[in-house]
Amino acid sequence: MSDRARRQLACLLCLISLAVKAEVDLRNNIHSGQAFSLIDAYSLARETNPSIAIARYGVDGAAASRDAARGRNFPQVSLFGDWSENKVSYEGSTLGQLPSQEYPGERYGLQLRAPLFNWRNFKEWERQSALVGQSTQELAIAETELLARVVEAYLTVLLTEETVGQFESELSALERQLEEANALYAKSLLPVTQVLETQTRADTLRADVLNARGQAAIARERLTQLMGVRDFSLRAMTNRFALITNVQDVESAANLAIAFNPSIDAAEEALLAARKGVDREKGSWFPEVDFVYNAQYSDVGFDNLTSPPRNTISYSVTLRYPLFEGGAGAARLRGAWAEFYSAQQRLVGTKRDAGGRARAAWVNLESASERVLASRQAVNTAETNLDAARNAVRAGTARVTDVLLALAQKTRAQRDLTEARFQRAMSWLELELATGADPVALVPKLSKALHGQ
Asked: What would the 3-class secondary structure string for 345-386 be?
């Protein structure tokens, strides 16, 4: 590569990088300072997610292949023609006296070929139609997986940021407690060991705050990758939100999953396509019958001998029946059966996985709902215990260590409540998706429940 070509390539790469950066900056400027709800985050992720785009192109490609296979079952009409410059010269004792000839030649016409019976092509069209159904269900699976990833990333950001706030709140309270301990120690009303215990707990809590901030930054980066926007804020979840499901029990969840899960639908379409593939290969042993119509105008002779211009029209029925292919046909049929049996086993495995996921999601939702109630009660108890410990210290009937333990218990209870709410939302979403709910219709309902609007 020459120096000039290298410079041109470097300039092109620079322009591309600048264009990409400009697009990202534009998206960031448009959405900077905006508080995203869950539905906003999902809409952005859905617009730019490569998996969704690939799945959509897969549907388009499968539809194109189906249409191409269907076209082979219709009449095919083609035009043909050629032009030639011909020269004839004679050799030999008897023909040597004949003059040489030079003349142009032309031939053109039309051919129509209509399949009368072609079982292989017909079954290939049916197979491609089943593949369209499979790719459509794979798009639904991609939508489902994207929603689960976005919701998990969104709630993880809220969870980690709330954890940071809880640690910071405990640290602020602990610093005030440390000031009180130092004041009491200065008046010889508190032993130095309790002051040191408070200082140690404060130092440990500062490390917890830094770790929580790091986890929050990682969670935001995961959500950034899905949304394609870096500078954003999120709407907080309401303290209480209602997520109602129509699934009554664990067996109902499993039955709904088997009936409506897109993964099972995709596996069933794949099985149907594999079955049509077997029929297609069986069709290769059937005769192929075509009707052929030819219309031709010719102004060139045979073997470069001149002939008057003429029009030729012919009708014919052609038959092709394979007798021997060296075992290739049997091998193709054996491969088609192997693909069919593999698809059959994949369907069985998919049904088991879907039923198991639905059962697990229902159990998780039930346990998460109970955990939320228990965690709320634990938070109330921890707050009461903290107030009692502080009053006891002021009255001189308790140690500062009791306050430290009460503060830690309150923070732990608040974190448990936050995690329980996160688990409940994710379990509800998993149950709805596992039982065949439409992700696009599900997002507004979940977003309204989480944000209260």
From this structure: HHHHHHHHHHHHHHHHHHHHHHHHHHHHHHHHHHHHHHHHHH
Tell me the per-residue pLDDT of 234-277, one tens digit each, with 9 for 90 and over: 888 777 777 778 888 888 888 888 888 899 999 999 999 999 99
Note whether 270 and 343 are within 8 A (CB): yes
CA neighbor of 55 nearest in space, from 63, 446, 29, 7:
63
In three-state secondary structure terms, 240 is: coil
299-335 residue pLDDT tens: 776 555 667 788 889 999 999 988 888 888 889 999 9
Q: What is the mean pLDDT of residues 169-189?
A: 74
Mark residue 324 as left, alpha or beta (left: phi above 0; alpha: psi -120 to 50; beta: remaining). beta
Strands 35-36 and 288-298, bridge-based pairing: unpaired
Q: Is it the case that residue 389 has pLDDT exceeding 60?
A: yes
pTM value?
0.74
How far apart are the C-alpha atoms of 164 and 161, rounded to whole Å? 5
Dihedral, CA atoms, 226, 228, 234, 238, nearest 10 degrees?
-30
From 407, 424, 445, 310, select the one nearest 367 (Cα to Cα).
424
Residue whose C-alpha is closest to residue 430's, from 228, 256, 218, 216: 256
In the chain, the N- to C-terminal Cα span, in Å, equals 61
Q: Tell me the C-alpha distance between 15 and 7, whole Å.
A: 12
Q: Which of 132, 131, 123, 130 is nearest to 72 (CA)?
A: 123
Number of helical (H) and strand (E) elements in the chain, helices listed first: 10, 6
* Contact (CB, 8 A) for 127 and 91: no
- Counting residues of the chain whose pLDDT is more than 90, the rounded percentage is 23
At 16 the three-state DSSP class reads helix
